């Protein structure tokens, strides 16, 4: 899988400090519906948009995690079309290291109800569907309020930029 981006505190704060912890393994997706819109998770409490995805459970394959996360965060079954690439985040500021594997997918069947965890429900998480370029604008226009949001913004824009490069 193609390496898309490594982002560290140095890219945001100038700090050269890195975490040496074992990375959290996660997946993300650019999920297209029948109208050629993509899913963005929206956390209402912070008015924060991002690509759907999440951690890979013990014993779970990356592809199984993509399908599970799509169902949970978008209410949709999906067919995985292609690998997009992987990203690495290393933040000593947030004591967080993550490798995230991103996939291109399309909705299969009808859109259903989200299957969110209690904390996601409490924070007002929903799914919103946008054309690719509009999704990029929605993510790009928000000013991050902390380093974690800045990491997420840069990561998601790198992934969407890669998709735009071969979809548009």
Short description:
With 168 residues, the protein is of the alpha/beta class.
Can you walk me through this structure?
The longest helix is centred in the last third of the chain and has 21 residues, at 147-167. Strand 6 and strand 7 (96-108) form a beta hairpin. The model has no long low-confidence stretch (mean pLDDT 95). It is globular, with a radius of gyration of 15 Å. The protein is an alpha/beta fold. It has a five-stranded mixed β-sheet with strand order 1-6-7-2-5. The chain has a three-stranded antiparallel β-sheet with strand order 4-3-8. Helix 4 (132-141) packs antiparallel against helix 5 (147-167). The protein is 32% helix and 38% strand. It has five helices and eight strands.
Topology:
Layout (H helix, E strand, L loop, with lengths): L2 E6 H4 L11 E9 L4 E7 L4 E3 L2 E3 L6 H13 L2 E15 L4 E13 L9 H5 L2 E7 H10 L5 H21 L1
Parallel strand pairs: 1-6, 2-7
Antiparallel strand pairs: 2-5, 3-4, 3-8, 6-7
Helix pairs in contact: 4-5
- The strands making up the biggest β-sheet line up spatially as 1-6-7-2-5
Biggest sheet character: 5 strands, mixed
**Average residue pLDDT:** 95
* Shape verdict: globular
Q: Share of helix among residues?
A: 25-40%
| Count of extended strands | 8
Q: Uncertain spans, ≥5 residues at pLDDT below 50? A: none
Count of DSSP H/I helices:
5
Class inferred from helices and paired strands: alpha/beta
């Amino acid at each position: 899988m193609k390496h898309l981006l490594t982002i560290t505190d140095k890219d945001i704060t100038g700090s050269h400090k890195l975490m040496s912890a074992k990375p959290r393994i996660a997946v993300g997706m650019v999920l297209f519906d029948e109208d050629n819109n993509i899913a963005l998770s929206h956390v209402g409490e912070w008015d924060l948009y991002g690509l759907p995805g999440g951690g890979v459970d013990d014993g779970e394959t990356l592809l199984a995690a993509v399908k599970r996360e799509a169902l949970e965060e978008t209410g949709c079954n999906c067919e995985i079309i292609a690998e997009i690439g992987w990203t690495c985040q290393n933040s000593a500021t947030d004591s967080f290291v993550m490798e995230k594997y991103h996939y291109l997918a399309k909705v299969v069947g009808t859109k259903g109800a989200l299957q969110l965890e209690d904390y996601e429900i409490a924070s007002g998480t929903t799914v919103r569907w946008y054309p690719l370029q509009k999704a990029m604008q929605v993510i790009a226009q928000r000013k991050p309020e902390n380093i974690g949001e800045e990491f997420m913004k840069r990561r998601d824009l790198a992934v969407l930029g890669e998709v735009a490069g071969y979809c548009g």
